[in-house]
Amino acid sequence: MAQQERIRVAIVGAGIVGLTLAVALNAFDSERKIIVDLYESAPELSEIGAGINIWPRTWEILKRSTVVVLQLVSQGL
Ligand SMILES: Cc1cc2nc3c(=O)[nH]c(=O)nc-3n(C[C@H](O)[C@H](O)[C@H](O)COP(=O)(O)OP(=O)(O)OC[C@H]3O[C@@H](n4cnc5c(N)ncnc54)[C@H](O)[C@@H]3O)c2cc1C
């Protein structure tokens, strides 16, 4: 596919929103028309020493996203 037929999307921030958006764009882009560039300013992942509560609806979305990520990884994407 020619480069000009594709859409390039820049996502700034690889937090839960940026990562979820990247996964969602990949999952619904069966024709591979979207190129995603994900930018993160933090030099490394680190713990902040806080617990996290996840609401049931959020947990459902995270579980579905995880399934999509595993499918993409298994397809070598
Ligand atoms: C101590 C603490 C406890 C929390 N506990 C909970 C909880 O229990 N339950 C809950 O649901 N929520 C909790 N939250 C809130 C939750 O963390 C946020 O709602 C959620 O992380 C927001 O996700 P986000 O992707 O929008 O932003 P973030 O997670 O903040 O991600 C944004 C990312 O963008 C990067 N970034 C910023 N500017 C740039 C730039 N110019 N270029 C490149 N990268 C950039 C940052 O480094 C960061 O990694 C908590 C927050 C804190 C601070």
From TrEMBL:
The keyword Transmembrane helix applies. One of its GO terms (molecular function) is oxidoreductase activity. Keywords: FAD, Flavoprotein, Membrane, Oxidoreductase, Transmembrane, Transmembrane helix. One of its GO terms (biological process) is secondary metabolite biosynthetic process. The chain crosses the membrane at residues 7-28. The keyword Nuclease does not apply. InterPro entries: FAD/NAD-bd_sf (IPR036188), FAD_monoxygenase (IPR051104). This is Salicylate hydroxylase. It comes from Leucocoprinus birnbaumii. It comes from the Eukaryota.
